[in-house]
């Protein structure tokens, strides 16, 4: 019991979880080099660059911690006393209790996101999870709008209003996005709501384990089905071995990116911001840069910045990410529900970047939303402290 009590006092979703997940990613990749014999072990330079990136990420977190302690002293003390403010837990409501105007607006947004995804799947004429040709067409503009609406809305709804029926909407959303064949979107939905509920509920350990299990199932099963749906690929590895292989292969891509710094000269970041509307896939640009042929490739959270802007680009990116995530993490107690929901979304997207890299327009849009909310909250608190 004492061990469980100690674990309850640890804020597992503070920004330092990024460091833990990157180290875990390295551990997952290790069997692909030592047991599977599918890949050649990387050189020491890979580990040096990962360590460098993590060091500057940690420095960014500590920098924000220093700024809050110095300039927002009162609010810093309040936000650091407890990472779960029980006074701000979501209002517990039954299915038949009256809906407020605010709740109706957020609920409508969630339902709109679900409806748009149903329309998107219907227009494709099949299930992309089982058909690689449909998967290539699944990420439409309707899909983008659906995801942009559903992900933050379901998080804010769960953060503010505790109705059991809303978990049904969560499950429906996860299933609809899972059958598109992409792992990242359903994992982001589950992971972000996990983070949101962790901060806004008296979240029992058994429910936490259920969320972790669901995330692992989607990671392994959806990835395994989708990769075997590609008719030109035939795998002799099982589902778990494929997970290890993909992690190892992604790290080998990072190693190549380290040796080919500045190869893309900013084109990756530009295509991330504009590529969805011009049909340019930034991950294909990664494939062109490191493999010299058109193939969509992930390169970890470090790869794109190295290919675009070199070592200094990676250092600045990791420092700013650490500083920004820590700032959101600390102000979530000031405007609890909405900031907590947005923090959950952004942290989940950043955790996914551990493998994929920051090459998703939708994630940068959430970063922008978080930045604007952060400025608003800090400005409001600064004025109130004068």
Structural class: mainly alpha
User: Which radius of gyration do the C-alpha atoms yield?
Assistant: 21 Å
Terminal Cα separation, in Å? 45 Å
Gross geometry: globular
Strand % is under 5%
- Give a quick account of the main beta sheet: strands, pairing sense, barrel closure: 2 strands, parallel
Order of helices and strands: HHHHEHHHEHHHHHHHHH
Which strand order does the major sheet show? 1-2
Helix content: over 70%
Walk me through this protein's architecture:
The chain has helices at 2-8, 17-34, 44-71, 73-81, 101-124, 132-138, 141-160, 165-178, 184-200, 205-228, 239-259, 267-278, 282-291, 303-331, 336-356, 361-385, and strands spanning 91-92, 161-162. Helix 3 packs across helix 4 (73-81) and helix 11 (239-259) crosses helix 14 (303-331). The protein contains 16 helices and two strands. It is an all-alpha fold. The chain starts with a helix and ends with a helix. Helices cover 74% and strands 1% of the residues. The protein has a two-stranded parallel sheet with strand order 1-2. The longest helix is centred in the C-terminal third of the chain and has 29 residues, at 303-331.
Topology, element by element:
Blueprint: H1 2-8, H2 17-34, H3 44-71, H4 73-81, E1 91-92, H5 101-124, H6 132-138, H7 141-160, E2 161-162, H8 165-178, H9 184-200, H10 205-228, H11 239-259, H12 267-278, H13 282-291, H14 303-331, H15 336-356, H16 361-385
Parallel strand pairs: 1-2
Helix pairs in contact: 2-11, 2-15, 3-4, 3-14, 5-7, 5-8, 7-8, 7-9, 7-15, 8-9, 9-10, 9-15, 10-11, 11-14, 12-13, 14-15, 14-16, 15-16
């Amino acid at each position: 019991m004492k061990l469980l009590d100690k674990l309850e006092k640890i804020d597992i979703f503070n920004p330092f979880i990024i460091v833990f997940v990157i180290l875990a990613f390295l551990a997952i990749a290790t069997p692909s080099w030592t047991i599977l014999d599918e890949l050649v072990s990387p050189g020491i330079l890979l580990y040096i660059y990962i360590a460098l990136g993590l060091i500057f990420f940690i420095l960014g977190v500590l920098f924000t911690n220093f700024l809050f302690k110095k300039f927002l002293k009162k609010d810093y003390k309040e936000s650091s006393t407890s990472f779960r403010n029980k006074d701000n837990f979501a209002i517990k409501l039954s299915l038949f209790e009256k809906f407020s105007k605010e709740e109706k607006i957020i609920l409508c947004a969630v339902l709109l996101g679900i409806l748009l995804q149903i329309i998107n799947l219907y227009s494709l004429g099949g299930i992309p999870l089982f058909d690689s040709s449909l998967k290539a067409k699944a990420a439409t503009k309707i899909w983008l709008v659906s995801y942009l609406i559903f992900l933050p809305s379901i998080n804010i709804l769960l953060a503010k209003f505790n109705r059991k029926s809303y978990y049904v909407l969560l499950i429906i959303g996860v299933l609809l996005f899972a059958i598109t064949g992409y792992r990242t979107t359903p994992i982001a939905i589950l992971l972000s709501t996990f983070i949101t509920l962790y901060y806004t509920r008296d979240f029992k350990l058994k429910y936490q384990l259920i969320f972790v299990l669901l995330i692992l199932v989607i990671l392994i099963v959806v990835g395994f089905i989708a990769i075997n749906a590609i008719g030109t690929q035939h795998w002799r590895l099982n589902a778990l071995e494929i997970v290890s292989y993909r992690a190892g292969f992604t790290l080998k891509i990072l190693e190549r990116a380290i040796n080919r710094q500045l190869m893309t000269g900013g084109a990756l970041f530009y295509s991330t911001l504009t590529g969805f509307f011009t049909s340019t896939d930034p991950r294909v640009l990664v494939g062109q840069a490191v493999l010299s042929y058109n193939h969509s490739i992930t390169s970890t959270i470090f790869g794109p910045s190295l290919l675009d802007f070199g070592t200094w680009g990676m250092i600045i990116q990791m420092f700013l990410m650490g500083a920004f995530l820590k700032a959101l993490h600390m102000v979530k107690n000031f405007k609890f529900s909405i900031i907590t929901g947005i923090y959950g979304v952004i942290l989940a997207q950043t955790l996914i970047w551990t493998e994929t890299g920051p090459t998703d327009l939708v994630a940068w849009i959430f970063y922008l939303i978080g930045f604007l909310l952060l400025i608003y909250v800090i400005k409001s608190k600064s004025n109130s402290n004068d």
